Amino acid sequence: MRTLIKEINTLKLQPIKKVIDDRIKEFQKVGRKSSKELFKELCFCTLTANFNAERGIQIQKTINNGFLTFTEKKLAKELKKLGHRFPNARANYIHTNQKYKDNLKKTLSSHKSSYESREWLEKNIKGLGFKEASHFLRNIGYENLAIIDFHIINLLAKHNLTESTRTISKKKYIEIEIILSKIGEKTKLNLAELDLYLWYMETNKVLK
């Protein structure tokens, strides 16, 4: 862990720090928007599961308000045209979840903690697992949840902090989240910030 902490602290002294700080501010701004805007961000996170994040961003920009109104058939047609890997399945998820577009913000704010919100999302939002629920909440300003994908697992495995794997149970997810929390404490970063640093270390990119 010591080597990884040193690498992160070195990055914090470089220009990438401002890029990450600005991205965190963008997430906080999204979190203050309407329920419909939050729903569109939820759709983005639904799209990125087992798909390319950059292409997901472009699809989100193109469809935009269509996430709120399109039929399942039209969503599938648009997603296919835009090159999504799973157009039919994702269209089904988004169309099914449209029932939450008007009250998503109120529902999330009714929970006592970010952990309760994540549990609710996993149980009620079709197509959203623990990772995607954490991703969505981070993208709307929540700061204490980890987004654990294979990039993060591979990086931690390199430093002998966990085993490399392509599948992860909820129990294992929580175990790795605790490891990341300890790294966050040592580097004085919340989990939202830490994720961006770790993702940058693995991909040389700062996305969302």
Task: Characterize the structure shown.
This protein has 208 residues and is mainly alpha-helical. It has two domains: 84 residues, Helix-hairpin-Helix base-excision DNA repair enzymes (C-terminal) (Endonuclease Iii, domain 2); 108 residues, Endonuclease III, domain 1 (Orthogonal Bundle), CATH 1.10.340.30. 69% of the residues lie in helices and 0% in strands. The chain is built from 13 helices and no strands. The longest helix has 18 residues. The protein is globular, with a radius of gyration of 17 Å. The mean pLDDT is 96.
Mean pLDDT: 96
How many separate domains make up the residues? Answer: 2
Poorly predicted runs of 5 or more residues: none
CATH fold-level label of the largest domain: Endonuclease III, domain 1
Query: What are the secondary-structure elements, in order, as H or E?
Result: HHHHHHHHHHHHH
Cα-based radius of gyration, to the nearest Å: 17 Å
Characterize the largest beta sheet: strand count, sense, and whether it forms a barrel. Answer: none
**Category from helices, strands and their pairing:** mainly alpha
Strand content: under 5%
The top level CATH class name of the largest domain: Mainly Alpha
State the helicity in percent bands: 55-70%
Query: How many helix segments?
Result: 13
Instruction: Estimate the global geometry from the Cα principal axes.
Output: globular
End-to-end distance:
25 Å
- CATH homology-level superfamily of the largest domain: Hypothetical protein, domain 2
How many strand units? 0
